[in-house]
Design brief:
The protein is α/β, with parallel strands linked by helices. Helix content is about 25%, strand content about 20%. The chain contains ten helices and 21 strands. It has an eight-stranded mixed β-sheet. A three-stranded antiparallel β-sheet has the order 2-7-6, with no helix packed on it. β12, α6 and β13 form a beta-alpha-beta unit. The structure holds iron/sulfur cluster. The site of iron/sulfur cluster has 13 residues, from loops. Iron/sulfur cluster (SF4) binds next to loops.
Length: about 400
């Protein structure tokens, strides 16, 4: 008889670190999840793997499905032809000029015979079933799962990237799956997902794959959601908005110098993306990862929140997310919870109605409160929804409409 797999502390990747952190939080801030809640949160968040893990050598059962250096091309509609066979990619604000036989900065767009091709059409290297809270969406079908997909590559080079093994890789470096847009939809339905999420790396760089998949997802009655750095040109974005239901955009900082020094990017195009998504009626949430000494000035956080309120509306949810030391910023400490609490207070004082603290499981800032009657309407524990009192998109206590997608 096969023995039943028991979820233990040791079977959860990152558990010991999280437990240490939780104990520290309990001692410092006086809150903590119960052990049962934490294990359930981990089960929902980390352990529902479908076909793959990010990068690495495949397990024997995966070996049939994945191939190293899988490249599948698709002609990009987003380029202009220059002299001497060069092309200019028009997908993101970098607008790479790509000579014949070379690739753009994202490593997945190549000039072949004077035309620009995507190299990652239908070959994702990550395919996970995740709680939608992990993407992170707090106002989109709470408590459901999304099938998340990503290919290699990115148009940013963030020093704090959590997915740098795939975002900073080339298609030749990784194992990828051969998964057509049709198969994504089929898998999503089979696995009981309510949405397909384009995430982990910057989805703009696998735009053609995302767009074709998104059309089929829509036809199949599921949602399309995207977690993005917002670094995309307006025309392709507007085209995508026709099938996009929700976007969570990383507003990584609120100064151009932060974007230049830590991401190799720029702030203004990201702000333009946020305004376009709002104008196109895509449900919008914002994530601001707060990194000690890099973007934790509360005067700048305030400026950012006032901009969000003025340009996007006071009901735009914003997530202040905790930084953990990794990649090129290993020398920095994790964000103190007190800093996240200050940022949340600043956001609420600036008039934003839904300000969250992310990645501090059990913190009260993970919950949703009605801005009118102040009652808790969604209680969360990590990525798990514990209680919810929203009825027909309205606060279950006072009837105030709550922005989001609820059914
Ligand atoms: S999508 Fe890639 S190739 Fe195109 S402009 Fe951006 S970084 Fe360059």
């Amino acid at each position: 008889m096969r023995s039943k797999k028991v979820l233990t502390e040791k079977s959860i990747p990152g558990y010991s670190y999280d437990v240490k952190r939780q104990r520290q939080d309990r001692d410092t801030y006086g809150f903590q999840l119960t052990r049962r809640e934490f294990l359930k949160g981990c089960a929902a968040g980390s352990c529902i793997l479908s076909l793959s893990s990010l990068l690495g050598v495949p397990t024997p059962s995966q070996a049939q499905l994945v191939k190293k250096a899988l490249i599948k091309t698709k002609l990009s509609p987003w380029f202009t032809t220059l002299d001497r066979g060069e092309v200019q990619c028009e997908l993101c604000p970098i607008r790479c000029r790509i000579p014949r036989g070379k690739r753009g900065i994202c490593r997945v767009r190549e000039n072949r015979d004077g035309k620009c091709y995507s190299l990652v059409y239908g070959n994702p290297c990550a395919l996970h079933l995740d709680p939608i809270e992990k993407r992170p969406f707090f106002h989109v079908l709470p408590g459901t799962n999304s099938l998340s997909i990503a290919t290699v590559g990115c148009n940013f080079q963030c020093k704090f990237c959590e997915s740098w093994e795939i975002s900073q890789a080339s298609p030749e470096d990784v194992y990828s799956y051969d998964v057509s847009p049709e198969m994504v939809v089929m898998k999503a339905k089979e696995m009981g997902a309510h949405a397909v999420a384009y995430a982990y790396v910057e989805p703009t760089i696998f735009y053609e794959y995302m767009l074709d998949t998104a059309h089929l997802v829509k036809k199949g009655g599921l949602l399309n959601v995207m977690h993005s750095n917002g670094f995309i040109n307006r025309v392709p974005l507007e085209n995508l908005c026709k099938v996009l239901d929700a976007a969570n955009i990383d507003l990584k900082g609120f100064t151009d110098i932060f974007y230049q020094e830590l991401c190799d990017g720029h702030l203004p195009p990201v702000l333009e993306t946020l305004k376009t998504l709002k104008r196109e009626n895509v449900h919008l949430e914002i994530t601001n990862l707060i990194i000690p000494t890099k973007n934790d000035e509360m005067s700048v956080v305030r400026e950012m929140c006032l901009w969000v309120k003025r340009e996007l509306g006071e009901d735009t949810p914003i997530h202040f997310s905790r930084f953990y030391p990794l990649y090129k910023l290993k020398h920095l400490p994790p964000t103190p919870v007190s800093t996240l609490e200050k940022a949340r207070s600043v956001a609420l004082a600036a008039g934003l109605e839904y300000a969250y603290i992310s990645r501090v499981p059990g913190h009260e800032g993970e919950n949703t409160y009605c801005p009118r009657c102040k009652k808790m309407i969604i209680r969360r524990a990590g990525f798990m929804v514990v209680e919810m009192n929203i009825k027909g998109g309205k606060c279950g206590y006072c009837g105030k409409p709550i922005p989001g997608i609820w059914a």
